[in-house]
Design brief:
Blueprint lengths: L1 E6 L9 H5 L5 E8 L9 E10 L2 E8 L7 H11 L4 E4 L6 H11 L10 E4 H6 L2 H4 L6 H8 L9 H14 L2 H20 L16 E8 L2 E8 L3 E3 L3 E8 L8 E4 L3 E5 L5 E7 L1 E5 L3 E5 L7 E3 L4 H6 L2 E4 L2 E3 L13
Parallel strand pairs: 2-5, 5-6
Antiparallel strand pairs: 1-4, 2-3, 3-4, 6-7, 7-8, 7-16, 8-10, 9-10, 10-13, 11-12, 12-13, 14-15, 15-17, 17-18
Length: 332
Protein backbone atom coordinates (compact mmCIF):
# COMPACT_ATOMS: atom_id res chain seq x y z
CA UNK A 1 0.00 0.00 0.00
CA UNK A 2 1.26 3.44 -0.90
CA UNK A 3 0.16 6.97 0.04
CA UNK A 4 0.91 9.57 -2.64
CA UNK A 5 0.78 13.27 -1.75
CA UNK A 6 0.78 16.15 -4.23
CA UNK A 7 0.98 19.91 -3.66
CA UNK A 8 -2.01 21.92 -4.87
CA UNK A 9 -1.83 25.60 -5.83
CA UNK A 10 -4.88 27.22 -4.19
CA UNK A 11 -5.75 29.80 -6.91
CA UNK A 12 -5.97 26.98 -9.48
CA UNK A 13 -9.02 25.51 -7.70
CA UNK A 14 -12.33 26.97 -8.85
CA UNK A 15 -15.23 26.34 -6.47
CA UNK A 16 -18.66 27.93 -7.00
CA UNK A 17 -19.23 30.51 -4.27
CA UNK A 18 -22.78 29.59 -3.18
CA UNK A 19 -21.82 25.97 -2.72
CA UNK A 20 -18.54 26.77 -0.98
CA UNK A 21 -20.25 29.06 1.51
CA UNK A 22 -22.81 26.38 2.40
CA UNK A 23 -20.33 23.80 3.70
CA UNK A 24 -18.44 23.25 6.91
CA UNK A 25 -14.64 23.13 6.85
CA UNK A 26 -12.48 21.14 6.68
CA UNK A 27 -13.98 19.52 3.59
CA UNK A 28 -12.80 17.08 0.96
CA UNK A 29 -13.69 15.80 -2.49
CA UNK A 30 -13.50 12.02 -2.80
CA UNK A 31 -13.26 9.56 -5.70
CA UNK A 32 -12.44 5.84 -5.70
CA UNK A 33 -11.30 3.28 -8.26
CA UNK A 34 -12.26 -0.38 -7.88
CA UNK A 35 -11.80 -3.69 -9.68
CA UNK A 36 -15.55 -3.88 -10.39
CA UNK A 37 -19.00 -3.27 -8.93
CA UNK A 38 -19.39 -6.27 -6.61
CA UNK A 39 -18.79 -5.00 -3.08
CA UNK A 40 -18.29 -8.49 -1.71
CA UNK A 41 -15.67 -9.76 -4.16
CA UNK A 42 -14.18 -6.71 -5.87
CA UNK A 43 -11.64 -4.48 -4.16
CA UNK A 44 -10.84 -0.80 -3.79
CA UNK A 45 -7.59 -0.18 -5.62
CA UNK A 46 -7.32 3.59 -5.19
CA UNK A 47 -8.90 6.30 -3.02
CA UNK A 48 -8.21 9.92 -3.82
CA UNK A 49 -9.09 12.99 -1.78
CA UNK A 50 -8.71 16.66 -2.64
CA UNK A 51 -9.15 18.50 0.65
CA UNK A 52 -9.32 22.02 2.05
CA UNK A 53 -8.00 22.49 5.57
CA UNK A 54 -6.70 25.53 7.46
CA UNK A 55 -6.86 27.75 4.38
CA UNK A 56 -5.01 25.43 2.01
CA UNK A 57 -5.75 22.61 -0.43
CA UNK A 58 -4.01 19.25 -0.32
CA UNK A 59 -4.18 16.01 -2.29
CA UNK A 60 -3.71 12.41 -1.15
CA UNK A 61 -4.03 9.10 -2.97
CA UNK A 62 -4.15 5.72 -1.23
CA UNK A 63 -2.99 3.10 -3.73
CA UNK A 64 -3.23 -0.65 -3.12
CA UNK A 65 0.02 -1.39 -4.95
CA UNK A 66 0.96 -5.08 -4.78
CA UNK A 67 -1.06 -5.85 -1.63
CA UNK A 68 -3.19 -8.99 -1.97
CA UNK A 69 -6.28 -7.19 -0.63
CA UNK A 70 -7.54 -3.69 0.17
CA UNK A 71 -7.49 -3.91 3.99
CA UNK A 72 -4.35 -1.83 4.62
CA UNK A 73 -5.49 0.84 2.16
CA UNK A 74 -8.89 1.13 3.87
CA UNK A 75 -7.38 1.28 7.36
CA UNK A 76 -4.99 4.09 6.46
CA UNK A 77 -7.71 6.02 4.66
CA UNK A 78 -10.11 5.60 7.58
CA UNK A 79 -7.62 7.10 10.04
CA UNK A 80 -6.98 10.17 7.90
CA UNK A 81 -10.56 10.70 6.75
CA UNK A 82 -12.12 11.07 10.18
CA UNK A 83 -10.94 14.69 10.56
CA UNK A 84 -13.18 16.11 7.81
CA UNK A 85 -16.59 17.71 8.37
CA UNK A 86 -17.96 17.79 4.81
CA UNK A 87 -17.61 15.35 1.93
CA UNK A 88 -18.25 16.16 -1.75
CA UNK A 89 -18.56 13.47 -4.43
CA UNK A 90 -19.98 12.81 -7.88
CA UNK A 91 -22.52 9.98 -7.59
CA UNK A 92 -20.95 9.03 -4.27
CA UNK A 93 -24.32 8.19 -2.68
CA UNK A 94 -24.86 5.37 -5.18
CA UNK A 95 -21.32 4.08 -5.68
CA UNK A 96 -18.34 5.38 -3.67
CA UNK A 97 -19.84 5.44 -0.19
CA UNK A 98 -21.75 2.13 -0.27
CA UNK A 99 -18.65 0.43 -1.72
CA UNK A 100 -16.36 1.84 0.97
CA UNK A 101 -18.88 1.05 3.70
CA UNK A 102 -19.23 -2.61 2.70
CA UNK A 103 -15.52 -3.17 2.16
CA UNK A 104 -14.76 -1.67 5.58
CA UNK A 105 -17.46 -3.77 7.18
CA UNK A 106 -15.78 -6.83 5.63
CA UNK A 107 -12.60 -6.06 7.63
CA UNK A 108 -14.46 -4.76 10.71
CA UNK A 109 -13.11 -1.26 10.14
CA UNK A 110 -15.08 1.57 11.71
CA UNK A 111 -17.21 3.42 9.18
CA UNK A 112 -15.46 6.84 9.13
CA UNK A 113 -18.13 9.29 8.02
CA UNK A 114 -20.55 9.36 10.90
CA UNK A 115 -21.25 13.09 11.53
CA UNK A 116 -20.24 14.05 7.98
CA UNK A 117 -22.32 16.30 5.80
CA UNK A 118 -22.24 14.93 2.26
CA UNK A 119 -22.96 16.78 -0.99
CA UNK A 120 -23.41 14.60 -4.07
CA UNK A 121 -22.95 16.94 -7.05
CA UNK A 122 -24.53 14.39 -9.39
CA UNK A 123 -27.81 14.55 -7.45
CA UNK A 124 -27.91 18.34 -7.80
CA UNK A 125 -27.08 18.36 -11.50
CA UNK A 126 -29.30 15.50 -12.69
CA UNK A 127 -32.43 17.10 -11.24
CA UNK A 128 -32.04 19.79 -13.93
CA UNK A 129 -31.93 17.38 -16.90
CA UNK A 130 -34.81 19.20 -18.57
CA UNK A 131 -32.72 22.39 -18.70
CA UNK A 132 -29.30 20.95 -19.54
CA UNK A 133 -30.53 18.27 -21.98
CA UNK A 134 -27.22 16.38 -22.14
CA UNK A 135 -26.93 12.90 -23.65
CA UNK A 136 -25.86 11.54 -20.27
CA UNK A 137 -24.64 12.87 -16.94
CA UNK A 138 -21.32 11.08 -16.52
CA UNK A 139 -18.55 13.27 -15.13
CA UNK A 140 -16.79 13.30 -18.52
CA UNK A 141 -19.97 14.63 -20.18
CA UNK A 142 -20.26 17.47 -17.68
CA UNK A 143 -16.59 18.32 -18.26
CA UNK A 144 -17.14 18.37 -22.03
CA UNK A 145 -20.22 20.58 -21.66
CA UNK A 146 -18.17 23.09 -19.62
CA UNK A 147 -15.12 22.94 -21.90
CA UNK A 148 -12.87 21.30 -19.31
CA UNK A 149 -9.97 19.45 -20.96
CA UNK A 150 -8.31 16.31 -19.62
CA UNK A 151 -4.78 15.01 -20.08
CA UNK A 152 -6.02 11.60 -18.95
CA UNK A 153 -7.63 9.60 -21.78
CA UNK A 154 -8.81 6.40 -20.05
CA UNK A 155 -12.19 5.59 -18.52
CA UNK A 156 -13.12 3.50 -15.50
CA UNK A 157 -13.13 0.21 -17.41
CA UNK A 158 -9.71 0.89 -18.89
CA UNK A 159 -8.45 1.84 -15.43
CA UNK A 160 -9.27 -1.70 -14.26
CA UNK A 161 -7.43 -3.18 -17.25
CA UNK A 162 -4.41 -0.97 -16.53
CA UNK A 163 -4.44 -2.11 -12.91
CA UNK A 164 -4.35 -5.80 -13.83
CA UNK A 165 -1.49 -5.09 -16.23
CA UNK A 166 0.37 -3.31 -13.45
CA UNK A 167 -0.16 -6.21 -11.06
CA UNK A 168 1.11 -8.76 -13.59
CA UNK A 169 4.17 -6.91 -14.82
CA UNK A 170 4.79 -3.98 -12.41
CA UNK A 171 4.22 -1.72 -15.41
CA UNK A 172 4.84 1.77 -14.01
CA UNK A 173 3.27 3.45 -17.04
CA UNK A 174 -0.07 1.74 -16.26
CA UNK A 175 0.15 2.80 -12.64
CA UNK A 176 0.75 6.43 -13.65
CA UNK A 177 -2.30 6.33 -15.94
CA UNK A 178 -4.52 5.04 -13.11
CA UNK A 179 -3.27 7.71 -10.72
CA UNK A 180 -3.69 10.46 -13.34
CA UNK A 181 -7.26 9.35 -14.09
CA UNK A 182 -8.19 9.59 -10.41
CA UNK A 183 -6.26 12.86 -9.96
CA UNK A 184 -8.10 14.61 -12.79
CA UNK A 185 -11.47 13.29 -11.65
CA UNK A 186 -10.85 14.98 -8.31
CA UNK A 187 -9.27 18.16 -9.66
CA UNK A 188 -12.31 18.69 -11.89
CA UNK A 189 -14.97 18.12 -9.23
CA UNK A 190 -14.79 21.69 -7.87
CA UNK A 191 -14.51 22.98 -11.45
CA UNK A 192 -17.78 21.37 -12.58
CA UNK A 193 -19.64 23.51 -10.04
CA UNK A 194 -19.49 26.11 -12.83
CA UNK A 195 -22.54 24.29 -14.18
CA UNK A 196 -24.63 26.05 -11.55
CA UNK A 197 -24.35 29.16 -13.72
CA UNK A 198 -26.43 27.27 -16.33
CA UNK A 199 -29.22 26.18 -13.99
CA UNK A 200 -31.32 27.97 -11.36
CA UNK A 201 -29.46 28.35 -8.09
CA UNK A 202 -31.20 26.49 -5.26
CA UNK A 203 -32.23 28.39 -2.13
CA UNK A 204 -29.83 26.17 -0.25
CA UNK A 205 -27.64 23.22 -1.06
CA UNK A 206 -29.04 19.82 -0.16
CA UNK A 207 -26.73 17.92 2.14
CA UNK A 208 -26.79 14.25 3.04
CA UNK A 209 -25.93 13.61 6.67
CA UNK A 210 -24.54 10.49 8.31
CA UNK A 211 -25.12 10.21 12.02
CA UNK A 212 -26.40 7.94 14.73
CA UNK A 213 -29.37 7.84 17.04
CA UNK A 214 -30.01 5.73 20.12
CA UNK A 215 -33.55 4.50 20.80
CA UNK A 216 -33.59 2.71 24.13
CA UNK A 217 -30.48 0.55 23.97
CA UNK A 218 -30.55 0.22 20.18
CA UNK A 219 -28.05 2.26 18.17
CA UNK A 220 -28.96 3.20 14.60
CA UNK A 221 -26.46 4.49 12.06
CA UNK A 222 -28.38 6.39 9.44
CA UNK A 223 -28.26 8.77 6.49
CA UNK A 224 -30.74 11.39 5.34
CA UNK A 225 -30.92 14.34 2.97
CA UNK A 226 -31.63 17.83 4.28
CA UNK A 227 -34.38 18.21 1.68
CA UNK A 228 -36.23 15.40 3.49
CA UNK A 229 -36.51 17.41 6.68
CA UNK A 230 -40.12 18.46 7.25
CA UNK A 231 -41.48 21.13 9.55
CA UNK A 232 -45.02 21.74 10.78
CA UNK A 233 -46.48 23.63 13.72
CA UNK A 234 -46.45 20.39 15.69
CA UNK A 235 -43.29 18.50 14.87
CA UNK A 236 -39.89 18.42 13.21
CA UNK A 237 -39.76 15.29 11.06
CA UNK A 238 -36.69 13.48 9.83
CA UNK A 239 -36.93 10.64 7.30
CA UNK A 240 -33.95 8.57 6.34
CA UNK A 241 -32.46 5.15 5.88
CA UNK A 242 -30.47 3.14 8.39
CA UNK A 243 -27.93 0.44 7.63
CA UNK A 244 -28.57 -1.11 11.06
CA UNK A 245 -31.47 -3.12 9.64
CA UNK A 246 -29.49 -6.36 9.78
CA UNK A 247 -29.52 -6.15 13.58
CA UNK A 248 -33.04 -5.03 14.48
CA UNK A 249 -36.62 -6.00 13.78
CA UNK A 250 -39.43 -3.53 13.20
CA UNK A 251 -39.66 -0.88 15.93
CA UNK A 252 -42.42 1.55 16.91
CA UNK A 253 -41.90 3.97 19.83
CA UNK A 254 -44.36 6.60 21.11
CA UNK A 255 -43.10 9.08 23.68
CA UNK A 256 -44.34 12.41 25.07
CA UNK A 257 -41.56 14.22 23.16
CA UNK A 258 -41.06 12.07 20.06
CA UNK A 259 -42.27 9.22 17.85
CA UNK A 260 -39.98 6.75 16.10
CA UNK A 261 -40.87 4.07 13.56
CA UNK A 262 -38.50 1.71 11.76
CA UNK A 263 -39.17 -0.70 8.91
CA UNK A 264 -36.75 -3.62 9.15
CA UNK A 265 -37.42 -4.72 5.55
CA UNK A 266 -36.54 -1.46 3.81
CA UNK A 267 -34.30 0.04 6.51
CA UNK A 268 -36.34 3.27 6.36
CA UNK A 269 -37.20 5.22 9.50
CA UNK A 270 -39.24 8.27 10.53
CA UNK A 271 -38.37 10.32 13.60
CA UNK A 272 -40.84 13.00 14.72
CA UNK A 273 -39.67 15.42 17.40
CA UNK A 274 -42.52 17.38 18.91
CA UNK A 275 -42.10 21.16 18.86
CA UNK A 276 -42.92 23.76 21.49
CA UNK A 277 -43.82 27.31 20.52
CA UNK A 278 -43.19 30.84 21.77
CA UNK A 279 -42.97 34.32 20.22
CA UNK A 280 -39.92 36.61 20.34
CA UNK A 281 -40.28 40.41 20.31
CA UNK A 282 -43.96 39.98 19.50
CA UNK A 283 -43.22 39.02 15.89
CA UNK A 284 -40.84 36.04 15.53
CA UNK A 285 -42.12 32.51 15.97
CA UNK A 286 -39.70 30.32 17.85
CA UNK A 287 -40.29 26.57 17.67
CA UNK A 288 -38.01 24.65 19.94
CA UNK A 289 -37.13 21.12 21.01
CA UNK A 290 -36.64 20.05 24.60
CA UNK A 291 -33.39 18.37 23.69
CA UNK A 292 -32.13 17.80 27.18
CA UNK A 293 -35.34 16.01 28.13
CA UNK A 294 -35.34 13.70 25.12
CA UNK A 295 -34.52 10.14 26.14
CA UNK A 296 -32.88 9.43 22.81
CA UNK A 297 -29.25 9.82 21.81
CA UNK A 298 -29.08 12.52 19.17
CA UNK A 299 -25.32 12.67 18.84
CA UNK A 300 -24.84 16.30 17.79
CA UNK A 301 -21.17 17.14 17.87
CA UNK A 302 -21.32 20.91 18.44
CA UNK A 303 -22.21 21.21 22.12
CA UNK A 304 -22.63 24.98 21.95
CA UNK A 305 -25.39 24.50 19.37
CA UNK A 306 -27.06 21.75 21.37
CA UNK A 307 -27.05 23.94 24.49
CA UNK A 308 -29.20 26.52 22.70
CA UNK A 309 -31.95 23.90 22.85
CA UNK A 310 -34.02 25.26 19.96
CA UNK A 311 -34.46 25.55 16.24
CA UNK A 312 -35.50 28.84 14.68
CA UNK A 313 -38.25 29.12 12.10
CA UNK A 314 -38.82 32.41 10.29
CA UNK A 315 -41.58 32.67 7.68
CA UNK A 316 -42.02 28.90 7.88
CA UNK A 317 -38.39 28.27 6.84
CA UNK A 318 -36.00 26.47 9.16
CA UNK A 319 -32.86 28.54 9.66
CA UNK A 320 -29.89 26.14 9.60
CA UNK A 321 -26.73 26.62 11.57
CA UNK A 322 -23.47 24.84 10.74
CA UNK A 323 -23.30 21.58 12.62
CA UNK A 324 -26.11 19.14 13.16
CA UNK A 325 -28.99 20.29 10.90
CA UNK A 326 -32.07 21.71 12.51
CA UNK A 327 -30.40 23.39 15.47
CA UNK A 328 -29.61 27.04 15.14
CA UNK A 329 -29.40 30.53 16.50
CA UNK A 330 -31.71 33.46 15.86
CA UNK A 331 -30.95 35.34 12.64
CA UNK A 332 -33.16 38.08 11.20
Amino acid sequence: MEIIKKPIHNPSIYFETTLKESIVEPYCFLDIETTGFNRQYDQVILIGILYFEQGNYGFHQYFIGQDSNDEALLREFSKDFSRFSTLITYNGLSFDLPFLRDRMRHYRISFPYIHLSHIDLYRHIVQHKNILQLDNYRLSSIEKFLGIDRIDKIDGKESIEKFHLYRRSLDEASKKEILLHNYEDLLHLPMITKIFSHIPSPDYIFHTYHDQIVIGEKQFHYEFESKKLRFSSFDFQLKGKSWSYENYHEIQVNDDLYQFSYDSITGEFVLKLFLFHTVIDGKFDLYYLKLKELNIGLDAKDSDIVDNNFIMVINNRIQYEKGFPGYGKVFE
